[in-house]
Amino acid sequence: MEDRCKIEVVELHQFFQDWFNGKLEPTDKNFARFTDILGEDFTIIGPSGRVIERAPLVARVRNAHGTRANSQMWIENFCLRSGEGNLAIATYEEWQKDGDGATNTRISTVIFREKTDAPNGVEWLHVQETWLVK
């Protein structure tokens, strides 16, 4: 489960980078890499404390195609915190660099559930992000 969760985190953030940079064609098939791994009741709490439900998040990401030219995104310090039954809790650092070179970092906690037909066998149920100050 740990390997599947780690691969999922890395691959999804690569999708985000490619989507936001406009490197992926904005097709339904390409965008399904994002929508197919979100649980029906998915929520994310951003580092500012704003709660975003699945539907508004999907629309927001869909509309952000090609809006962040030359930006970069990568993951560091992935750690599986717990795995019980078909659920797992993990943390990771998400690093972002915009086209001008400004960098921000957040630490994210994610709850995964096994899903056999998902690309890496897991779906995202919930994410909590917190700004990481170093």
Under the CATH scheme, the architecture is Roll
Number of domains: 1
Helix fraction by DSSP (H/I, runs of at least 4): 25-40%
Low-confidence stretches: none
Sheet with most strands: 6 strands, mixed
Plain-language structure description:
The chain has 134 residues and is α+β, with helices and mostly antiparallel strands. It has a single domain (2-62, 71-131), classed as Nuclear Transport Factor 2, Chain: A (Roll), CATH 3.10.450.50. It is built from three helices and six strands. The protein has helices spanning 2-21, 28-35, 54-63; strands spanning 38-45, 51-53, 72-84, 87-97, 103-114, 122-131. It has a six-stranded mixed β-sheet with strand order 2-1-6-5-4-3. Strand 4 and strand 5 form a beta hairpin.
